[in-house]
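Reopening this ticket.

The earlier resolution said the output was attached, but the attachment link was broken on my side. Pasting everything inline this time so it's all in one place.
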Amino acid sequence: MPASSDPIRVGVLGAAKITPSALIQPAQSVEGVEVFGVAARDPLRARRFAAEYGLVRAFDSYENLLADPQVDAVYVPLPATLHAEWVIAAIEAGKHVLCEKPFASNSTDAARVAEVAERSGVIVMEAYHSAYHPLQDQLRAILDTEVLGHVSAARAVFCIPLLSRKAIQWNPALGGGGLLDVGYYPVRQLRDLFGEPTHVIDARARQSRGVDRRFDAAMQFPGGVRGEIVTAIMSRRLLASRLEIRGAAGSLRVTWPYHPQSGARLLLRTAGRTHVVPIERRSSYLYQLEAFRDAVRTRTEPRTGAREAVAQMSAIDRLYEAAGMRPR
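Inline output:
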């Protein structure tokens, strides 16, 4: 493992489209992290990816990347159904792991990974980047002040138009569906703010090609909070990203709460007046990579560790079951 003054060399399993924005570009601004190499099922694709983004090494297999002693940590942006297998392989190779959300395709696989992680001594962190942006602490602080009064309702929405039917989100064998993709954010947002839901009130999935293209649900949270989610990869509501919380003394509304750097706006309404609360525009991916670096250096459990990922996947599994669908 690197000394505190040495950069953490990260290898990437899979030349995924999200890697440049989620890892390579942030690493250019985060001191102490180097994206060292990439492996892909197709060695030619790995070489092209490495050349395009200036990486030192292109590996011809995932196994060879994991066996390289120069690689300190691994980023896993593979399809959800492959996460458990390769995160465990990386842990057993002694590598720290930053795994894209969802951590696994279901709670059973997530728990299996968490058990291996807890015995390993390496850092295993889920790449739920939104958790590391200061906006999340701002929202918690507002709720803690009770300026909204007793909170009775919250609604989290994330819908996108995923037009390409070649996208893995349309493939059930790869863990497809809106709830596991964009739906992950609203579910996690409500859980982070209000705790574990006590039960699912209602859940409805609109399916296409064997996956949920739209998912609507209501859950009961502690303290009498009714939380609703709306998520879709294709619906009449083409693009929507917001969080609304309503209390007895006021309300708040946030646009782009999951990617605040994309132009988030926080409006707080109390005593008949609306206040615009400033939001940090720095990228959530930068905060996430800094958190991963610090967790590796200090061997401190990150905010989005493996056990937290198991709880999230358990909530998603319950939602699928309530809608009459099998967990992925």
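Reporter confirms the inline version is readable. The radius of gyration is 20 Å. The longest strand covers residues 211-221.
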